[in-house]
Amino acid sequence: MLLNDEYYMNEALKEAHKALNQDEVPVGAIVVCQGTIIARAHNQTETLKDATAHAEMIALTSAQSYLGSKYLNDCTIYITLEPCVMCAGALHWTKIGRICFGADDPKFGSSLVGKRLYHPKTEVTTGVLDVECGKVLTDFFKKKRSVPKQ
User: Fold this and answer.
1) How far does CA 59 lie from the centroid of its chain?
2) What's the first-to-final CA gap in the chain, in angstroms?
3) What is the CA radius of gyration of the chain?
4) Whole-number Å distance between alpha carbons of 19 and 75
């Protein structure tokens, strides 16, 4: 079976749904190396009370630990949402080979900076399953806004 970007992004979406079930902003990420998923993560900022516990950050740490290296040159990260500036910086320093994300983030995405933040050798693919990735986020925030605050 040929595994493609849509397959892997669906795996990242599974992580986003785990975050959703924990009342976290539903963002998921996986890291793939030589066709094998070596790390899975989802947002845990509320659970861990840690503003840096984004899916990408957790996935990168896990992948680096798995490989025993701070560099991820031969890896691809699949993220359901465009990385923020913090995560883009972390992705830069890992020298990750490829970044593939689903939905654009017009409010907080790294593209708002107006220049490329990723490592110059990193390939970037956008818009993979963007509708599906965007829908889980849109539905989450609609529900949040409709619930009265206590």
Assistant:
1) 8
2) 50
3) 15
4) 23
Q: Which pair of structure tokens corresponds to residue 80?
A: 């359901």
SS (H, E, C) the chain: CCCCHHHHHHHHHHHHHHHHHCCCCCCEEEEEECCEEEEEEECCHHHHCCCCCCHHHHHHHHHHHHHCCCCCCCEEEEEEECCEHHHHHHHHHHCCCEEEEEECCCCCEHHHHCCCCCCCCCEEEECCCHHHHHHHHHHHHHHHHHCCCC
Tens-place pLDDT, residues 116-143: 899 999 999 999 999 999 999 999 999 9
Neighbours of 41 (CB within 10 A): 27
pTM of the model: 0.94
> Given 56, 82, 123, 132, which residue is catalytic?
56
Of residues 29, 144, 136, 20, the one with CA closest to residue 75: 29
**123 an active-site residue?**
no
